[in-house]
Specification:
83% of the residues lie in helices and 0% in strands. It is built from nine helices and no strands. It is flat. The protein is an all-alpha fold. It has one domain: Serine Threonine Protein Phosphatase 5, Tetratricopeptide repeat, CATH 1.25.40. It holds the Pfam family TPR_12. Keywords: Membrane, Repeat, TPR repeat, Transmembrane, Transmembrane helix.
Length: 211
């Protein structure tokens, strides 16, 4: 009888242990499921925020464009307003319109010449994004001529030359950036990469040498 009682007790203990293992396993699985759910909710929340933000930015740009276009139609638009309208069109990716208004801003410009460098830079970006690299380069060169320490325009000029496969001119542009801003995080890695690439082509005629 004692042996039978002991066997039943052991069996009951074993059943309890098995149940505990099942419960722990279920809790662990539930924890994983909750983690996945929280991650999914976080991603959905971030995605929703991004979409809403994009819609609000787009709406703000549309309103700005509408107001500025009305000012232009009235004939009372200043050079600054043409520049702002061109910048809005650039952000909306309407590159031909951006080019048109930025050119008009340059024609009407009556402010400091150094500020005009920003208009030339924006015009260069518009041409570059419209795949007109030669015209883009001309605008960036004009921008740095007006404002020699304009590192953004130098970076854009270097990028345009690199896209055109004119590596030596690109290298020179990024080196100019580092003269004015030695720690520039855009120009430094591009300069180092171009130094290696120009070294690899040493002795091989490059486009910049043919001009």
């Amino acid at each position: 009888m004692a042996w039978l009682s002991f066997a039943r007790t052991a069996q009951a203990d074993e059943g309890t242990n098995i149940n505990m293992v099942y419960e722990v396993g279920e809790l662990f699985e539930l924890g994983i499921q909750l983690s996945y759910l929280l991650i999914l909710l976080g991603l959905l929340g971030a995605g929703t925020f991004f979409v809403i933000r994009q819609v609000l930015v787009r709406r703000e740009l549309d309103l700005s464009a509408k107001e500025l276009q009305e000012q232009v139609r009235s004939g009372d638009a200043s050079a600054t307003e043409y520049f702002e309208l061109g910048a809005v069109m650039l952000r909306r990716k309407f590159y031909p319109a951006a080019i048109k208004y930025l050119q008009q801003a340059i024609q009407k410009w009556d402010r400091d010449e150094q500020d005009l460098a920003q208009v030339y830079n924006a015009l260069g970006v518009s041409y570059k994004r419209d795949n007109k690299l030669d015209k883009a380069i001309q605008q960036f060169e004009k921008a740095v001529e007006l404002q020699p320490g304009y590192v953004t325009a130098w970076n854009n000029l270097g990028d345009a030359f690199e896209q055109k496969k004119d590596l030596k001119s690109a290298l020179k542009a990024f080196e100019e950036v580092l003269l004015f801003d030695p720690n520039n995080t855009v120009a430094r890695p591009r300069r180092d990469d171009l130094k290696q690439r120009v070294g690899m082509y040493k002795g091989v005629p490059l486009k910049s040498e043919k001009r």
